[in-house]
Write a structure and sequence with these properties.
Elements: E1 4-8, H1 12-24, E2 28-32, H2 35-44, E3 49-53, H3 61-71, E4 76-81, H4 86-95, E5 99-102, H5 107-137, H6 148-160, E6 167-170, H7 177-187, E7 195-199, H8 205-213, E8 214-215, E9 227-228, H9 230-233, E10 238-242, H10 249-261, E11 263-265, E12 272-274, E13 278-283, H11 287-293, H12 298-304, E14 307-310, H13 321-336, E15 342-343, H14 345-353, H15 359-373, E16 378-379, H16 386-389, H17 409-423, H18 428-435, H19 439-448
Parallel strand pairs: 1-2, 1-3, 3-4, 4-5, 6-13, 6-14, 7-10, 10-13, 15-16
Antiparallel strand pairs: 8-9, 11-12
Helix pairs in contact: 2-3, 13-15, 17-18, 18-19
Amino acid sequence: MTGSILIVDDEKGQREILTAILQKEGWLVVDLPGAREALARLEKEDFDIVLTDLKMQGMSGMELMERVLTANPEQCIIMMTAHGTVDSAVEAMKTGALDYLEKPLEREELLMTLRRALEHVNLRRENRVLQKRLAEVRTIPNIIGDHPNMQAMFRIINKIGPTTSTVLIRGESGTGKELVARAIHELSRRRDKPFFAINCAAIPDTLIESELFGHEKGAFTGASSREIGIFEAADGGTVFLDEIGEMNTAMQAKLLRAIQEKEIRRVGGKINVPVDVRIISATNKDLEGEIRKGSFREDLFYRLNVIRLDLPPLRERSSDIPTLAAFFVRKYSESTGLPVRGISPQALKLLIAYPWPGNVRQLESIIERSILMAEGEYIQPEDLPAEIHELRPASGATGFDLPPGGICMEELERELIIKAMERTGWVINKAAPLLGLSYKTLQYRLEKYDIHRPE
């Protein structure tokens, strides 16, 4: 690992020796005899490290350092000092120098100090990039927000992004769990490697192992060739396991082993394949409750729950609705070419009052629809769907009394499922959140009640 270095020393012989040593090691070296020449060069060119003598004719190394750091506070400076002036070098470090070297310089100590300094420079540079990426993350639609809960989440993302720790994201459907997972990946050192997302609830139990770990030829009917799974494909990157609470316990045991051993075995295979992936998982379930019921492994939970992020539902941060709605208006007015500029105060009042069971995903869908329905430049109350006008009762209230003759719970449930499916165009992923069910549970109940989309 080498970089660029500016050597400043009024002793020509010293500069020549240092230049010869560092160029042989692959460093890009410029050497100058005085501080004024160095200041002029630094105005035109950037160097990873400035290596300057402390005592020089004319401007001293201390004054040079002070002027350089005034212009560029992040410039890495190392002082060279003769025997007997070490106290001055220590004072220079207090003022802003990263390190110092005592003359006569020893080759190995010189190289080790410069390597350490370059690591510091690269780390600081990478941190600036990560900070920039975090600022970009704040513009992702589903995690826009000035609410204190959202600001706290941004701070956590900033801290955990560059690490390799596993992350568990908890939140209701539609709160943007996958977008947060992608943001964490983009802030990490794995950002140039693959990111794979898989919905554990959407894959049958018989196929999920093959999907994650791959399979060998002939492992099962239809396996005509070897196929690698998501873990192998994502090697060096990140795997996002959405709805992890829907994974069956047999597969949970295999996932736990893959995380612990950092290796997988393809279905039908006999060889363990090493993999390096960061695991980010998400759920809308109470996994601690699932552990008590015996449907989720406690040891896997502790492996996944190293760092936990709790995404607040939209109803708990209604102050962010105007900002989110305005963002979606701009997005869809541009993509559709329709001249919608905003939302009327009356329509915005309805949006803020609505409880948003489908969270930000539902808000985005409704804004897109309303732009298509709008007659003028602003979305009006009449452009919003009926569900926004028909506020649901508060949580815990049913909104109706039991009839004298009682009710059939199964028939009521069947009717509610049909209404939810009709409202969402018979899309299970969209209907499930309206009913407070997972994809798999709703799929099971559709089969149980023999509910099918009308021809």
